[in-house]
Amino acid sequence: MLTAITPVLVVTPGQAGQAGLDTSAWKSYVLGPSTPDVHPARAEGRGDVKHPQSLVNSHGPATTLTTVAGGTPASVLLDFGKEVGGTPYLDLTRVTGSPTLTLVTSEARQYIRTPASTTVPAVAPGGSTQIPLASAANLETGNTITFTAAGGAPVTRTITAFDATARTVTVKPALSADLPAGTAVTTSPGAPSSDESRGLAGVGGPDTFQPTAPGRLTGGFHGGFRFALLTLSSPASVSLSSLGVTFQAFRATPSDYQGWFLSSDDQLNRMWYSGAYTLQMNLKAPGLNGLPDARIYDGAKRDRSIWTGDLLVQIPTLLTSLGNAGAPYVKSSLDALLATQRADGAFPGSPDFSKRTNPAGSPLFYSNNYSGYGARAFVDYFRYTGDKTYATAALPALRKELAYNNSFLTADNLVVSNDRDYWQATQTGEVTKYSIDYYILLREMSWLERTVGSPALADGYDTKADAIKTAVMSKLWNPTLGAYGQSSAKPDVVVEDANALALQYGFVPAGQETRVLAALKTLWTPYGAIMGPGLQDPTGHTIEPFGNGMETAGRFTTGDTAGALDLMRRTWGPMVDKQNPLYTGAFWEFKNSTGGVNRATASLAHGWAASPSVQLTEQLLGVKPIGAGYQTWSIAPNPGTVRSAAGAVPTAFGTIRTQWTNDPHSGRFTLTVQAPPATSGTITVPVGRGSVVTVNGATAKSAGGSATLAVSGGSYQITVSQR
Questions:
Q1: Where residue 23 falls among pLDDT bands split at 50, 70, 90?
Q2: pTM for the complete prediction?
């Protein structure tokens, strides 16, 4: 380690900008709307709709929807271009007849309508125009209806009417031949539908209006959507001057970002701000939906509940981007965990799940692992904010929770709990990940105790953690695989999560890191890494961004920056591609094996997927908290082939600003750092054999591998060059 050097060169933001980036350009990546009144980016009509584009342009002739009996209901589909949340409104300028208007929302266009899927229960003779159906769900006049008998060619007709009570559909033209009983029935494009899960979220669902005069109509709260479909379902005519949304998530403009990130790689930049926007969409403001406090929900539309596993990603992402503006959301969410802790010490996986009858929800003791995640969330809050008063007050509850998790530790120093964890499937035997998770919790609690509690307890936690690590390495390592098996019951199954965490937390036997990295790569697909051979969640999702974030962290930790960025691009690259049909500007909860999602209620703005944001700050840019509130810190960039990066990180003591440029061909690397004066830390720069390191103009060292400086807060310019 190099000797601490007194700063002699003041590096101003303007000077830092000359290193290769226009540092003001980060503002163009911010996704939050500039005003709370949000209007669609695109509009298209179906049926008799005049001037739908006026709803986009906010000028021109009024948009008019007209529906006649037996005709296709007039509808207009609004695309807001990205995820929004709040209360939709429409301004009517003319009402003719007795209209019934319905408004539904969806994150993905493919779920804004649901086709019928039913059968013909009895023979429908040739010449018929009225046909019985087993179900009348999702029928709409004007839809194409297709009848397909076993072994027969599809027969298509147009729906002219249907009777939901009698379960019949009227078509034209008449049938030319009999339809046998059991004939399959589908429709296109289907009937308007919502992708929201009201039983979990307690909000959303279709809005129905029956206006009698011009004026403004306001719908209910919808937590997250990109598309809205307005349908005039009854014979009538209405004209609208506007249809928009009053935005009610956390609306962050550039002035609200206390931290930011910018690099020479446009895709990585879009990832960072998509992660930040995902968190903003997950925030519930005080007073919204009848709840007085602020909360971090797991998803914008679903479940709209606090989840401890999600908090492990959400807390660092939120506090790194919004700083103390995000802290109240974290603190009140942790308060909900404290208020619902069980007598045996267990934290609920979600303290406010299932809001169908109560907006506050009810605690769900979902998993033993998630209980431990809850304790780690408190430690993360303290690490990023330095809120010693809160951490000290929570410490007794955290000790109780730790004792609960300890009850699953066997005499062999391995955890056995057959837990559901994050992908909702119990696992038998001594599960590798569960023991590593408990090890992480012990280390986190040791750090917390040494900072605000009992060093003696910390010593005990460290001793127990060491024993767990030894047991995992001796019993669960599979030398044939060159990786950890899923469990003692499935020792030959390579799993992503356990091996990723093993890399990150030093569980891999010395010299075996490359074998683990290679084993993990066997799980890669073009869309990200699968959980493991044959593993999936109950809805068929095989790729978990939560687990992929563990792997990118493990790869960064072991110096595989290229692999970490490659996996990021596979997993999250499609999510930030505006041409992707599932694009929302936010990150998705799950993926299936073809890169899509398997159900309408899959969340496309889900906090546990936001790990690229914090990892790009902490691993690529290189700024990490070491002491609480960043009183001590580490700056250690992992540039790989990225040419430049810059950013700001909010701390309890002020803002850390840093910027670097990287020329892999010449070996020249330049880093500027500005750190608050009441802090200290280490700065590590990559060097090659024979490199010369200069700090504020003075030659400091010639070395190979890396060079580390122990420094006090101040301004530094460090250059690495070849002789």
A1: confident
A2: 0.96
